[in-house]
Amino acid sequence: MSHAHLHSHPPRSGRPSSPAARRLTLALLIPAAILTIVSMALLWPRDSPGPEPVDGPTQAFGRVVTVDSVPCPELPEGDELPPGAPTECGTVTVQLTKGVGAGQRITTDVPSGPGAVTVAAGDEVVLLYLEGSPERPYSIMDHQRSRQLWLLGAAFALAVVAFGRWRGLTALAGLGVTFAVLLMFIVPAILDGRSPLLVAIVGAAAIMLTVLYLTHGFSMTTTVAVAGTLVSLTITAALSAVATAATHLSGIADETSNYLAITQGEVNMQGLLLAGIVIGSLGVLDDVTVTQSATVSELAQANPGYGFRQLYGAATRIGRAHIASVINTIVLAYAGASLPLMLLFAAGTTPISELLTSQLIAQELVRSAVGTIGLIAAVPITTALAAVLATRQHPAPTGPAEPHRTPAVNTPAVDPPAVDPPAVDTPAVNTPAVTDPAVVDPAVVDPAVVEQREGEPPETDPWMAFVDQHPNRRP
């Protein structure tokens, strides 16, 4: 049986192709899972603070009944309207549906000031109740948007399942696991005083092991992606620690981090910055590693003769193109999230050199640079691991390729009983068809012979067989 026929039905890349592949998958998965579970048990929050009662206004919910707008009073002569001041005043009637005073109909002022919401009749709103206010204890704070978000989430899930089918369903399950680890382990453990970097690494490992195998199945491709992600994530964590210490970043760069440092004094803010870099890098690392592992697997099945160098070189070229697009994606993501800050800086007079070295901008630059270096390291690491395992599963043929020979099926073309002697002037003219049919004029080749040869399993490259049989080929 020819070598091409042996690989006519290659195993699917999404499944383990051999018992050795399954053993290797379990050899990596079991120790990693045990180490992750033990680490989570040791770091699990035990004395995490519960929600504390907040002194101040409480919330209420209601539906806007009517809005009565009137022009605001004119300012005295010489006074200018301050920026963001409202031009329309009036009152809003709201039917309270939940919270303090539920069932009552109250009247409050039209929302005003920077960032004030715009309301209309029928809107579902959130109100603040000020108990000590004698005139209007309620004020509209925001819109209720839970219904809209649920509808958007349902549309998102429907689109994922409709396109991805079973794979999309497992991806949604993996997304649920990610949120569960974040909300039930990572955030409470950091609030409990655990090391944010260690918690982030263990949590990222738990997310990766669960989500990758749940989404892509227990296969050699997934195992290689898991190994590449683990190594790259370790490199990213080490680089982030070095870069943060070298640039003297404290992790307190904006009002949110400053407030958290004041109210939660046990949280290590520099470690929280490192944890954010690790968790943020994981979302892109698994994409790169899964792509590289699957690329090598497909190349090995499409070209069984490829060795390590051919597989590594071809997959690395694909990885370079992927990394180039991912780098642009990372930069645009950070730029989009920081667009208001960029506008604020652009409107000021601070020199660009001082802006780039400020705590807030330098923190984002370190985050982007370290995450990108980790992604770049993931490509050769994952590709090399996948290429080594692929060459062991599908070793390249070591013997020389057999020359193309026409088998004995052409014998009926020169069999004396099948040829009428008087009609054949030179019987020897068909002799070359036995040794090399490519040098014979197609007009003298028996069509039955050609049809029989076309039905045989190919012994050489199918493209060369097509060229050999093409009627326009010249000797």
The succession of helices and strands, N to C, reads HHEEEEEHHHHHHHHHHHHH
Q: Helical element count? A: 15
Tell me roughly what share of residues is in helical segments.
55-70%
- Overall shape: elongated
Beta percentage is 5-15%
Mean pLDDT: 76
Secondary structure class reads: alpha+beta
**Reading side by side through the largest sheet, how are the strands ordered?**
3-2-1-4-5
Characterize the biggest β-sheet: 5 strands, antiparallel
Structural notes for this entry:
This protein is α+β, with helices and mostly antiparallel strands and 475 residues long. It is built from 15 helices and five strands. Strand 4 and strand 5 form a beta hairpin.
Tell me briefly what this model is:
The protein has 475 residues and is of the alpha+beta class. It has 15 helices and 5 strands.
Brief descriptors of the model:
disordered C terminus; 475 residues; elongated; alpha+beta; OB fold (Dihydrolipoamide Acetyltransferase, E2P); 5 strands; 56% helix; 3 domains
Q: What is the topology?
A:
Layout: H1 3-6, H2 19-43, E1 58-71, E2 88-99, E3 105-109, E4 124-129, E5 138-143, H3 146-164, H4 166-191, H5 196-216, H6 220-246, H7 255-263, H8 269-302, H9 308-337, H10 339-347, H11 352-356, H12 359-393, H13 431-435, H14 447-454, H15 462-469
Antiparallel strand pairs: 1-2, 1-4, 2-3, 4-5
